[in-house]
Amino acid sequence: MSEAVETARLMDAVYRHQRHVYDLTRKYYLLGRDHLIKELQPPRDGVALELGCGTGRNLIAAARRYPDVRFYGLDISRHMLETAEKNIAKAGLSSRITLIEGDAANSAATEGLGVPAFDRVFYSYTLSMIPIWREALAAGAARLAEDGRIHVVDFGQQGRLPGWFRKLLFAWLKSFHVTPRADLEDELKNLAVQTGATLSFKPLYRGYADYAELRKG
């Protein structure tokens, strides 16, 4: 069995029931998502891709903020995409948001959309859930326009928060198959060198989350 198939089965198992309350519960601890959306600032008539779009919460917020931009969302979980499709339809944004079922670590998953390259590629609390997260970053970079940007927000290492908080949080996240990536900054630095991009990386909320932008051109 391929790793992509195993990941799809795992995500479907984890979110088969959670998807119904996901947005209600996650808003309290997936901090920095709205900061990422604010910083996206895609060009007028641009195209943006979220890898690991989940229930579509970020796509809806971004589409409302940037009405002249076309959005695409990819997720490996069929159950999450079913919920995302319903949420997007309810928001009246089905004509501007396209969903794709596929592996975020496979750049070919978005090649059949008729989009040569994306102006923005973003990951919101996704890389901590993808076993082959480095490949997912590389896949996003491979589909990025020459002057495009990658945006990332995810769990940090809780550097300025109490040790007991970090221990409890990491143990709780592990139960959901979530692993904060301690070497996220190093991997983004390597990717920046490989792609000729520049990197901005900063902790948010005393290290609770990390936010990064990789800019080409």
Automatic annotation (TrEMBL):
Keywords assigned: Methyltransferase, Transferase
Keyword Methyltransferase: yes
Classification via InterPro entries: CFA/CMAS, Methyltransf_25, SAM-dependent_MTases_sf
GO biological process, one term: methylation
Domain Methyltransferase: from-to ranges: 49-148
Pfam family, one: Methyltransf_25
Protein name, as recorded: Class I SAM-dependent methyltransferase
Source species: Roseibium aggregatum
Lineage start: Bacteria, Pseudomonadati, Pseudomonadota, Alphaproteobacteria, Hyphomicrobiales
